[in-house]
Amino acid sequence: MRDLRMWDIVQHKNIKLYRPSSKMFWSLLISLALLGLAQSVSAQITADFTVSRSQGCPEPLVTQLQDASVSANPIQNYVWTVIGPNGVLPNSPFFAANPFIALSDPGLYTVSLTITDNLGNSSTLTQNDVIEVFELPSASLTANTEFLCIGDSITVNLSCNPGCGNIVSSFFQPIPGVLVQNACDTSITLPYSLSNPFSPNAILTNSCGCIIQDTASFVVTPVQRPVAQFSLPETDFCIIPAAVTVTNLSSSISSATTYTWNYIDTLGNVVSTQTGFEPIVTLNEGIYSVELIAETNGCVDTFFQNRVVRVFNAVIDFSISTDTACALENVVFTDLSVPIPDLWSWTMPGASPSNASTSVVNADYANAGSYDVSLTVEFPGGCSLTQIQTGAIEILDIPIPSATYTVNEDCKVPATLNVQSTSINTVQTEWTFPNGTPSSATGVGPVFVTYDGFGSYEVVLTETASNGCQITETLNDFHVVQPYISSIIPDVLDSCVPLNVNYTALFNNLPTGESIQSYAWNFPGASSVTSTSSPGPTVTYTDTGCFDVELITTTTTGCTDTVLLENAVCAGSPPIGMGMADTSEACLQTGEVCFFYNGIGADTIFWDFGDGITASASPFDTVCHNYTNGIGPSIPSFTALQYNCPNDVNPT
Question: What confidence tens digit (pLDDT) does each residue in 557-570 have?
Answer without folding.
Answer: 788 889 999 998 99
